[in-house]
Backbone:
């Protein structure tokens, strides 16, 4: 692969400070470092990115990001850091601010700090798959869903109906064994990669044509609930997963 002719890509790590479900989850300690340190490490060590940028509304998070080798060149406006703020808002803002600073990129990748078991090779594998595809707008990490939507219901007062249309010529999905149901995938927090044009021209982070990136093992593990952090700690303690190597000392406030 001719590195000189590859598209340029920036890693965007979103790290707002106002999480409600797990307070301060992006910097919660795991094996001696804040959670975000492992995403920064995997991004830097992948060798894929021209820059590794942290988007945050917190000066403390910015200092932590800089300590671990990322770049937090400006604060995210508070109006783009709410519980329901869509990704397109902060991504568009960040790319535009970077362009004002003379930094433009052909592609961007969102790497969420709540996915600590993503390895540098995970990023490299996804980047190779993205580059090998023709005619796509973006790539997104997925894994087989643990709860099949064929067995999900919408409640209406004291009745319920299947979430998905059921096949007419065979047994309905809700009454079949899991092994007989179609394979369904759900997106996870590991990563996504897209051409910058989908933001500039389409006002979206994904575009219309997406390709899957199938994560392996715990690559897509996401710390999104208090129990998830405890599970992550146990997985590390029991040696069932490997965290990315963090080459610098732990951050001290």
Residues:
């Amino acid at each position: 692969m001719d590195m000189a002719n590859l598209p340029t890509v920036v890693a965007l790590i979103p790290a707002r400070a106002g999480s409600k479900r797990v307070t301060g989850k992006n910097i919660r300690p795991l094996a001696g470092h804040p959670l975000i340190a492992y995403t920064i490490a995997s991004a830097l060590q992948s060798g894929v990115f021209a820059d590794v940028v942290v988007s945050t509304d917190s000066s403390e998070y910015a200092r932590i990001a800089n300590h671990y080798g990322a770049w937090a060149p400006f604060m995210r406006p508070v109006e783009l850091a709410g519980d329901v703020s869509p990704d397109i808002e902060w991504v568009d803002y960040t790319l535009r601010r970077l362009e004002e600073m003379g930094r433009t990129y052909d592609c961007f990748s969102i790497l969420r700090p709540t996915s600590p078991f993503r390895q540098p090779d995970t990023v490299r594998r996804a980047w190779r798959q993205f580059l090998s595809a023709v005619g796509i707008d973006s790539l997104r990490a997925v894994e087989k869903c643990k709860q099949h939507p064929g067995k999900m219901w919408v409640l209406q007062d004291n009745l319920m109906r299947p979430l998905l249309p059921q096949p007419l010529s065979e047994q309905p999905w809700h009454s079949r064994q899991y092994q007989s149901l179609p394979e369904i995938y759900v997106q996870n927090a590991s990563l996504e990669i897209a051409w910058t044009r989908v933001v500039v021209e389409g006002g979206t982070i994904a575009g219309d044509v997406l390709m899957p990136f199938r994560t392996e093992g715990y690559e897509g593990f996401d710390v999104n609930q208090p129990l998830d952090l405890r599970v992550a700690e146990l997985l590390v303690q029991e040696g069932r997963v490997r965290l990315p190597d963090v080459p610098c000392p732990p951050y001290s406030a």
The chain is about 25% helix and 20% strand. The CA atoms of residues 137 and 208 lie 6 Å apart. Residues 87-100 form the longest helix (14 residues).
